[in-house]
Amino acid sequence: MPIFDICNMLFVVSQLFCLTGTTLPNFFNDYTLQFYLLNDDPRKPVQLSQAAPYFDLIRLSNPFTPLRIDGFFYTKSDLYRLIVHLPGSVTHTRKKRQGPLITFLNLDINPSKIVYFKKLATVQLRIAILNDKPTYIFAHSRHPASSKRFYPRAFLNLGGTSRLVIFSSSPHLVLYIPCIACQSAPEEAEITNFVNLDTIFTSRNKNAWNNVVVDYDEFTWWGKFEGKCGPNLAHYVDMYPPKLCAVMVLGEKFNFTWISLKEHDENKLKYMDRVISQISFYHIFSENFNDEVFVPFKLNFNNFRFAIVTEVPAVMNNLYGIYLPFDNVTWICILSACLATGMLGRRDIKLGKIAQGIEVTLRLISFLLGQGGSSSVAGFSSSRNARTLIVTGWFFGVFILMGNLYQGSIFSYLTVKIPPRVPETMEELLESGITIVTSSYSWFGGAKYKSLLKDEIIPALASSLRENEKWTKLLEKFSGKIEFMNPDLLLSGIPDAYSNFTTFLTRNKSKDLNTFAVMDRENGLVITTKVLKIVAKQLVLENREETFFNIVGIAFIFRNYLSGIMITGFDHLFESGIFSRWEKLQKLWETLYHVRILGNVTYNRFFLKEMGGGRNPVEFHENQSVSFGAIRYFVVICGSLGGVGWVIFLGEIRKYFIRMIRAGWKRLTKLQIKFVQ
Predict the structure, then answer these.
(1) Where is the chain membrane-spanning (predicted)?
(2) Which of 36, 372, 509, 607 has a Cα-to-Cα distance from 630 of 20 to 30 A?
(3) 366-389: per-residue pLDDT in tens?
(4) Helix or strand holding residue 450 (H, E)
């Protein structure tokens, strides 16, 4: 063996004895190693001993770990990736399993041959984060304390989640965990495995050091937080939207400041070096979403629903209410029964059995009205078995069906307000002539609004279904029925909320001002319908069926080293139910805010209703007075029939009394004659 090879082996062995626990054999077994090798002259071969003096230390302690080598040629201002051909002695021919990537790069570049020394060191980080996307970046530096000037901007402004480790290899391998957002130098760490590394990195970087997170949701809020985020209505005040509560909690936990996009744009110089992340809670998901730059952490499925606003029905105080309980089929059956009854009676009369025909007719009518008895049924058959079957059928058919359905329904129609027939499904709404009002919007800056339903969702559906002519025509027809109402006008004056709708419909030349539909996202529709139920003297019927119009909202955060830490904090709020509790309190608080304008009496009544689960106080029918107008027709009919009955009864009594008087007079006359004789 040549003396040079023996010396080289002894040097490597001596270096292995100096390695810390992080370079123990097989430490990188589950990963793929990648080395960046830089050279200032592409014509010269890459020398591992110069480009990466730490290569032998890492490779010889992990000989079976998959390996990648990437060479770079650099000039004064640029960096180019090269195809590197390495000698066979540093590669291993054995096939190995690929795992998560770990990239090793060298920050110690000779500054004498390059003007942009700091820039070139930072560019390496940018290439690794944006192109190779390793799980970990191990950056070599002979002076770890000075490495702080290289990595902060690259890790804060680029879309990558790689975790950075600074290490030095002279005289032995030492690992340092940096604090990316703060100004302190990296701290030396004793690392035994990658789980331990992740824990130390998170603990060092979960403090944002009062840096800035920019809110990308336009038109949501401006200014500072001045509300409360308690668990109940008494301790939850003026936090719109509810995400501000999550912002306050996580801002205190991770020590960051939250600013709006507007404030950032107006003070770019002030926040230039302080922005560490961007976030959005209310972004409409689309095909253009860049998941390489942003990390989604919450999906919101917002379905459109509709409600019908129409006139309040009046009590049916007329004789017409008697005929309403039955549908067409029932009326046909009743008419057929009446014809059959008349034909049976007519047949008996023709046969000379007038009395029997009248008796059969009255008996059938009494059965129909539920006024017969089991003894009357016995007259239909002399057989006991047949009589039992008839009595059983009569019981279920007459008393249950006729007694409960017919008589009960008549009085219900005369005393209860029956809601009008309005569209209950999307198909019925489409076929009706009712105007549809929507106020869900997209905001494009300033005071410019666009209808989310008419200008975005329907055109998107029509575009995706353009090959289906039937659907295209339906969407065009539906779009023609929709009128977009500016959200500022919708609840601009709460006491006049209903008149705002009628004014809007009049302006848009709607045919029917008393009946119209409101279609919005579920959250907005709830508030609108509650306000209309209070201020309007109209009936508001909410439809529970979901429409086929919906949008997917997405919450996302800028992809960097901080995104995983922030998402974990948000997930805890979502999974524990705290965030959903804030959303419910916000809806209630906003509705109460609008209702308070209507006065204390209305506010107190509405507050009690909402605290009671959204139900009105229970009213028992025994305590409700029934108007005479609802039953006066029955009183007149029954009174007339009763009067006729009394006349007949008195007529029968008159004959009986006359007979009695005559009989008594005859007896008295006979007694007188007998007495005289």
Answers:
(1) 394-416, 547-570, 630-650
(2) 372
(3) 665 555 555 555 555 445 555 555
(4) strand 449-451
Task: Return the half-sphere exposure (C-beta side, CA atoms, 13 A cut-off) of residue 277.
Answer: 32
Beta carbons of 602 and 256 less than 8 angstroms apart: no
For residues 219 and 260, give the distance between their C-alpha atoms in angstroms, rounded to a whole number: 9
Q: What's the count of helices (H) and strands (E) in the chain, helices before strands?
A: 24, 21
Q: Which one is predicted more confidently, 607 or 384? A: 607
- Model's pTM, two decimal places? 0.69
Q: What is the dihedral of CA 423, 425, 427, 431, to 10 degrees?
A: 10
Query: Exposure string (b/e) for 516-544, b if CB count within 10 Å is 16 or more?
Result: bbbbbbeebbbbbbbbbbbbbebbbbebe
CB atoms inside a 10 Å sphere around CB 200:
18
CATH code at 294-312+419-558: 3.40.190
Task: Give CA separation, 262 vs 153, 445, 447, 523, in Å.
Answer: 23, 11, 15, 26
Domain ranges of the chain: 3-205, 210-284+564-629, 294-312+419-558, 319-415, 631-676
Q: Are strands 275-284 and 550-558 parallel, antiparallel or unpaired?
A: antiparallel
Rounded to whole angstroms, the Cα distance separating 262 from 346 reads 90
Cα separation, 554 vs 21, whole angstroms: 43
CA 649-655-656 angle, to 5 degrees, is: 85
Stated as kind and residue range, the H or E segment containing 451 is strand 449-451
Q: What is the pLDDT of residue 72?
A: 80
pLDDT band, residue 141 (cuts 50/70/90): confident
In this structure, how many other beta carbons lie within 10 angstroms of the beta carbon of residue 220? Answer: 18
Alpha-carbon gap, residue 619 to 615, rounded angstroms: 11
pLDDT digits (tens, 9 = 90+) for 76-128: 666 667 655 444 334 443 444 478 999 998 887 655 555 455 667 778 888 89
Q: Residue 15: its pLDDT value, please?
A: 42
Separation between Cα atoms, residue 319 and residue 316, nearest integer Å: 8
Strand pairing of 482-484 and 211-215?
unpaired
Residue with tokens 């992809």: 559
- Supply φ then ψ for residue 532, to 5 degrees: -65, -35
Tokens encoding 118: 């700091």
The average pLDDT across 411-440 equals 79
